[in-house]
Specification:
With 400 residues, this protein is α/β, with parallel strands linked by helices. The chain has two domains: 136 residues, Aspartate Aminotransferase, domain 1; 228 residues, 3-Layer(aba) Sandwich (Aspartate Aminotransferase, domain 2). The chain has a seven-stranded mixed beta sheet, sandwiched between helices. Helix 4 packs parallel to helix 10 and helix 5 packs across helix 9. The longest helix is centred in the middle third of the chain and has 18 residues. The protein is globular and about 60 Å long.
Length: 400
């Protein structure tokens, strides 16, 4: 075989998100883009903060030696210091630039961290439903993904996690606010998970790291404040990006933040810097580093996503759909009204509505909606969801 056996096998499990996105493109070509309602891709469409354009233009016109050349693989020192100051203010922990490594988005950062931590055969616990790429990142670095279901509210199930931990467990990945469910993990859940991992680390005789993927942490609703896992567990490593909080998904800029409390922080920082180079990233984008270094504390207007959350949730609830109401990100993960979520997504395509079947997130029996779309798309789609609900006998009877 020309390509590797692993990649060949993984390609057969390619992202349902991309499959549905491509199906949406086909339908748009046939019926016109304005007549297709595509909820497949989590592509942020809320504009970046107002300051972004001004800062970008100021940085882009600067001249001088080295502005577009290599810098240390971990990133500009002053940018890392700015990011560290933000973490120190948010968490009360003594962050310095030595705990920060700039990365090519959160995806690049997660691969850097996994390359740093994993030996062949090490196990990484993924909580289902989960962002589909995690299961491809883990074997990139010789690891084995272990899937552990969340509870009926999509929160970590401590008993299941504890039962899944073995002497080979090296990390647990969490994602809050969550893709695909929109659930935000509360402080008490993070504290319980931190206590569990501390006990399990002592039991197995090796540190189990908590990897927290946080690209949506600025997108929280209902007056909530995002609870960071850093104060809950000393062996936490955060990976995040500016893809969602600044709407810069295509710029691929993010960072890794290593807890100042973890005993091996210097080794991890040095190894992450090394693997940033050896994986071929070399360094995060120079221009975008300078931009985000000046935009710490800025983020998009989350209320725009909250308004859309309310529109889609209220509309689908009135039609009889069941779901856990999301508290952040821009995803909704309702129960499929029929057992086969792939069949349900096919039914919705008949009405030119594109949703992603839950099986693509190890969440069979559900489907994902990304409401990073114009309000008009949501408004018009609800009529079509209603037709599907009527076809399935789902809509509750009108009250007399």
């Amino acid at each position: 075989m020309t390509i590797s056996t692993l990649v060949s096998e993984e390609m057969t499990r390619r992202s349902w998100i991309r499959r549905m996105f491509e199906e949406g493109l086909r339908l748009k070509a046939e019926f016109g883009a304005e007549n297709v309602f595509d909820f497949s891709l989590g592509n942020p469409d809320v504009p970046p903060p107002a300051r972004f354009q001004a800062v970008l233009e100021e940085e882009a016109v600067k001249t001088g030696a080295g502005l577009h050349g290599y810098m240390p693989n971990s990133g500009y020192d002053w940018v890392r210091e700015a990011v560290a100051a933000s973490y120190a203010a948010q968490t009360g922990l003594p962050f310095s630039r030595h705990e920060i490594i700039m990365s090519c988005g959160a995806g690049g950062g997660l691969n850097v961290v996994m390359k740093t931590l994993l030996d062949p055969g090490d196990e990484v616990i993924l909580l289902t439903p989960y962002f589909v790429e995690y299961a491809f990142y883990v074997p990139n670095h010789g690891g084995k993904a272990v899937f552990v279901p969340t509870d009926d509210r999509f929160l970590p199930d401590m008993e299941r996690i504890d039962a899944a931990i073995t002497p080979r467990t090296k990390a647990v990945v969490i994602n809050s606010p969550n893709n695909p469910t929109g659930v935000v993990y509360p402080r008490e859940t993070l504290d319980a998970l931190g206590s569990l991992l501390a006990r399990a680390s002592a039991r197995t005789g090796r540190i189990i790291y908590l990897l927290s993927d946080e690209p949506y942490r600025s997108l929280v609703f209902d007056g909530l404040t995002f609870p960071s896992p850093l104060p809950s567990y000393e062996n936490t490593i955060v990976v995040t990006s500016s893809s969602k909080d600044l709407s810069l998904a295509g710029e691929r800029i993010g960072h890794i933040a290593i807890s100042p409390q973890t005993p091996h922080k210097a080794d991890i920082e040095a190894a992450c810097t090394f693997t940033t180079r050896t994986l071929g990233f070399l360094n995060a984008n120079a221009l975008m580093q300078r931009v985000v270094g000046r935009l710490q504390g800025e983020h998009v207007n989350a209320r725009l996503y909250e308004k859309r959350r309310n529109m889609i949730c209220d509309g689908l609830q009135a039609l009889g759909f069941q779901f856990v109401r999301p508290q952040g990100a821009f995803y909704l993960f309702p129960r499929s009204p029929i057992q086969d979520d792939v069949e349900f997504s096919a039914l919705m395509r008949k009405y030119r509505v594109i949703v992603v079947p839950g099986v693509g997130f190890a969440g069979s029996g559900h489907f994902r909606i990304s409401y990073a779309v114009p309000e008009r798309t949501i408004e018009r789609s609800l009529e079509l969801f209603g037709k599907a609900a009527d076809e399935l006998g789902l809509r509750p009877p009108a009250r007399s």
